[in-house]
């Protein structure tokens, strides 16, 4: 039996944080009824696209909405509202990702949903939460990262912030809301009472700075990447360019790694520099920069194979997905209908996983019960 079999979720979310949260529940057997507007979740149209059983879905939409049912409702109409009320009567979880105030205007805020299903676990996902000075401020991921301080250390060599490669606040909110909902379901088993979860992207991301922003958390100055051990100030936590203009990284600052590499390179004299504070390792960083420029990325990868050093080549996504490790772990999976999926990171020993079908828009408008 799947871990979440028997749990019914009404999912009104779109784009990334909410769908990420509910697809993780769907992958473990929960019944997710995705309530979409008549035009569908906009992610359906965000290419690139792949063929799935003779139809096309965006790869983004498929990977975040597989295994769900799709119901289209006009929540501004009385017929749509009544249909949603009927779905709520049978639900365990209700998830929405609108800006604060929208659900109340539609007639489906927590108090009203609770009056329909008293033990409901209701989760609201927003950028800045349901209350506070920023509650109604419009924002997607990068704006949240900027206001939370994270973009200040997502900078290039010139110190200027750059567009982040990962939607960290979106993903943090997806994981946080999943954890909160599962906690609430466990609590409901014990008490019979539901719960309301106010999950903000900002709130979810902020704790992720504990290891980089310690000085600021303690009331002091903000970290500067060039002098911070995890952000570019340490030689053994650093990106280096290779002879072929590709890149490699040293990704572990433990002294055993420094001793192993510098001994192999015949520069034991630089071992004490690896022990110096971040920001004071310039001579070692310069030496390693010059050293890594002498071979290609793939030549260095081969050179490091038998050496106990936290080293990795910088791969693009195509190279990463084609790595033997991904195949060995079963992380990139072809569905029966031909679509490709990233496997869930939560998997249990002795249980097989195959991608569930991707729902056609409105496919479950009838007989969804």
From TrEMBL:
InterPro entries: CoA-transferase_III_domain (IPR050483), CoA-Trfase_fam_III (IPR003673), CoA-Trfase_III_dom3_sf (IPR044855), CoA-Trfase_III_dom_1_sf (IPR023606). The lineage of its organism: Bacteria, Pseudomonadati, Pseudomonadota, Alphaproteobacteria, Sphingomonadales. Keywords: Transferase. SUPFAM superfamilies: CoA-transferase family III (CaiB/BaiF). This is CoA transferase. Gene3D superfamilies: Crotonobetainyl-coa:carnitine coa-transferase, domain 1 (3.40.50.10540), formyl-coa transferase, domain 3 (3.30.1540.10). GO terms for molecular function: transferase activity.
């Amino acid at each position: 039996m799947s871990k979440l079999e028997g749990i019914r979720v009404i999912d009104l979310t779109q784009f990334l944080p909410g769908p990420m949260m509910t697809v993780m529940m769907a992958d473990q057997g929960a019944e997710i009824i995705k309530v979409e507007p008549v035009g569908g979740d906009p992610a359906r149209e965000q290419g690139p696209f792949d063929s799935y059983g003779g139809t096309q879905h965006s790869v983004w939409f498929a990977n975040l909405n597989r295994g769900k049912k799709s119901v289209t409702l006009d929540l501004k109409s009385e017929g749509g509202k009544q249909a949603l009320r009927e779905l709520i009567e049978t639900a365990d979880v209700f998830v929405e990702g609108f800006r604060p105030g929208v659900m109340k205007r539609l007639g489906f805020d927590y108090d009203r949903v609770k009056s329909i299903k008293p033990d409901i676990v209701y989760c609201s996902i927003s950028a800045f939460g349901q209350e506070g000075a920023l509650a109604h401020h419009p924002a997607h991921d990068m704006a949240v990262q900027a206001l939370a301080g994270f973009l200040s250390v997502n900078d290039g060599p010139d110190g200027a912030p750059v567009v982040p490669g990962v939607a960290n606040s979106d993903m943090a909110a997806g994981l946080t809301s999943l954890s909160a909902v599962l906690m609430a379901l466990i609590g409901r088993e014990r008490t019979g009472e539901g719960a309301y979860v106010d999950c903000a992207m900002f709130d979810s991301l902020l704790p992720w700075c504990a290891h980089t922003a310690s000085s600021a958390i303690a009331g002091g100055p903000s970290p500067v990447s060039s002098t911070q051990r995890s952000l570019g100030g340490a030689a053994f936590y650093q990106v280096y360019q290779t002879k072929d203009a590709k890149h490699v990284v040293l990704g572990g600052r433990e002294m055993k790694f420094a001793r192993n590499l510098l001994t192999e390179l015949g520069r034991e004299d630089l071992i004490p520099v690896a022990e110096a504070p971040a920001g004071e390792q310039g001579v070692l960083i310069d030496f390693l920069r010059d050293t890594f420029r002498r071979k290609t990325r793939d030549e260095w990868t081969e050179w490091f194979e038998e050496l106990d050093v936290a080293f990795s080549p910088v791969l693009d996504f195509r190279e990463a997905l084609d790595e033997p490790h991904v195949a060995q772990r079963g992380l990139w999976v072809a569905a029966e209908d031909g679509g490709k999926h990233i496997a869930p990171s939560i998997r249990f020993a002795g249980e097989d996983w195959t991608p569930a079908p991707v729902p056609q828009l409105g496919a479950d408008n009838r007989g969804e019960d």
